């Protein structure tokens, strides 16, 4: 069998190796890649020992390089963004920002109530104060549509926990109630209270005879 068959199978191995990262196939493409490289080495060794060892050295050197390159590119692919819950155009630097687009600091969101827009397993998207944010659930998964509260912000990451509808209603009622700390309004004072009259100056002789 001609030697170029071996190099053709080597090229097919590289393609399958990249597709294994880009397409969720449950490992089927990876198995096909392993079968392909074994076939390529078999053809090379069948041609000559020199060709076989040469192809083996090429595979040993290039495969780790392809792995590193694909791992760096994978978070920016559609499947990588979907698994990482990262929206298109969002980078790790954007995730590290500690302020919202309107300049509001993330720390100001602590204690605010929102809703989960996606499942948090443990990370996902939430909506707080009409702003969509990447968030991390504390301790348990959170289903999409469930009410959440922001518990803390650490290193640019928003941490949330689920709350019941009773907790949500109580918090919203407390926020809507008037401020009880305002000083009470004092009643208007009389211009001439009885204590201000001078009874000594009153004319007592004006009584009838």
From TrEMBL:
This protein's record includes keyword Transferase: no
Chain intervals with Low complexity compositional bias: 171-183
InterPro entries (UniProt xref): Membrane_assoc_protease, NA-bd_OB-fold, NfeD-like_C
Transmembrane intervals: 6-23, 28-47, 53-74
Region named Disordered: 167-209
Membrane-protein topology: Multi-pass membrane protein
Keywords: Membrane, Transmembrane, Transmembrane helix
Residues of the NfeD-like C-terminal domain: 107-162
Pfam families (UniProt xref): NfeD
Top-rank taxon: Bacteria
Compartments where located: Membrane
Keyword Metal-binding found: no
Protein name: NfeD-like C-terminal domain-containing protein
Organism of this sequence: Novipirellula caenicola
């Amino acid at each position: 069998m001609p030697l170029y068959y071996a190099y053709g199978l080597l090229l097919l191995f590289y393609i399958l190796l990249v597709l294994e990262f880009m397409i969720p196939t449950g490992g089927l493409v990876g198995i096909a890649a392993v079968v392909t490289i074994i076939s390529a080495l078999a053809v090379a060794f069948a041609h000559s020992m020199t060709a076989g060892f040469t192809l083996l050295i090429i595979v040993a050197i290039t495969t780790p390089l392809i792995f590193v390159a694909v791992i760096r590119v994978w978070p920016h692919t559609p499947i990588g963004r979907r698994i990482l819950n990262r929206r298109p155009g969002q980078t790790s630097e954007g995730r590290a920002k500690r302020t919202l687009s309107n300049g509001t600091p993330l720390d100001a969101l602590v204690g605010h109530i929102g809703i989960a827009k996606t499942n948090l397993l443990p990370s996902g998207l939430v909506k707080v104060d009409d702003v969509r944010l990447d968030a991390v659930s504390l301790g348990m998964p959170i289903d999409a549509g469930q009410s959440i509260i922001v518990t803390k912000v650490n290193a640019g990451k928003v941490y949330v926990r689920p709350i019941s509808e009773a907790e949500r209603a109580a918090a919203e009622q407390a926020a809507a109630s008037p401020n009880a700390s305002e000083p009470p309004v004092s009643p208007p004072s009389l211009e001439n209270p009885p204590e201000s009259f001078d009874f000594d100056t009153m004319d007592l002789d004006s009584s009838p005879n």
